[in-house]
Design brief:
Blueprint (H helix, E strand, L loop, with lengths): L1 H24 L4 E7 L7 H8 L2 H4 L2 E7 L3 H10 L4 E4 L2 H8 L6 E8 L4 E5 L15 E3 L6 H12 L9 E3 L4 H9 L5 E5 L2 H8 L3 E5 H5 L5 E6 H6 L1 H20 L2 H8 L8 H13 L11 H13 L9 H4 L3 H6 L1
Parallel strand pairs: 1-2, 1-3, 6-7, 6-8
Antiparallel strand pairs: 3-10, 4-10, 5-8, 5-9
Helix pairs in contact: 2-11, 2-12, 12-13
Family: Belongs to the bacterial solute-binding protein SsuA/TauA family.
Pfam family, one: NMT1_2
Organism: Bacillus methanolicus (strain MGA3 / ATCC 53907)
Length: about 325
Amino acid sequence: MKNWVKICFFFLLITIFIIPLAACNKKEVLNVKVAEVTHSIFYAPQYVALEKGFFADEGLKVELTTTAGGDKTMTALLSGGADIALVGSETSIYVYAQGSNDPVINFAQLTQTDGTFLVSRNKIENFSWNQLKGSTFLGQRKGGMPQMVGEYVLKKHGIDPKTDLNLIQNVDFANIAPAFASGTGDFVQLFEPTASVFEKEGKGHIVASFGTESGHVPYTTFMAKQSFMKENKQAIEKFTRAIYKAQVWVKSHSAKEIAEVIKPQFEDTDLAIIETVVDRYKSQGSYATDPVLDEEEWNNLQNIMEKAGELPKRADYKTLVNTDVANKVK
């Protein structure tokens, strides 16, 4: 009888102490829906965070959706279809200018330069920007950051986009590369890996980088509605910490190592091309090394928008940028 009492007491202890302890140790998983403006090697640190399990380590389950275009990405965010958007910072300014009572806040920076390259149809040994004068230039969609940066760089080199060349801007983003491949334009502004693929196939030659020429800007950032950030502080902090871990990892590893990690995200792209693209972006400092968006970059962005005639009104840095979380995780 005494033995039976001891056994019952033993199992009672297990019930009281061990089972609740196991429940406490089980990390709560937070679901976060992220809409990215496009799926690009330009966003390598985000994919490193996914593939290396940095989000999972923070107790996050990230549902990533490609929304193909700044307008669609912002619509997903504003409608609640996404919790966080990865898109150009200019979109938050457009929303702010429309008088939103729940502004979109930039809280973590991913890329800090333009990601496009100038591709020439013909091989040029000694390129100079003056060679674009009188040419047909196939540019990016009007109102987007690539187009604004493109025009900013042209003007920087004394080229008036409206009078010094034939500027084509009425081609949809998805059709720009095919249009150039079919014979439209002497020069084209392209993202990677298309630019490197064209060079490998002999369809074009990379002659300059818009990212190098334009300087640092908050080209692509993670943003969320102000209300979401207030109501989900823990999720935002965990998300930002995972991104920062990935940024540190990318900074300290080779292009080859990064390419191998993110290859599952780009199954149809050769590993060698991925490595070339990562190396190109790393070399020109496109990947932000921490998530803090500083005020100088913010002002440079608005100056570029203003010179392109696309800035509806200037937005104060502290109004649309929150660096509290980014600084905390650093």
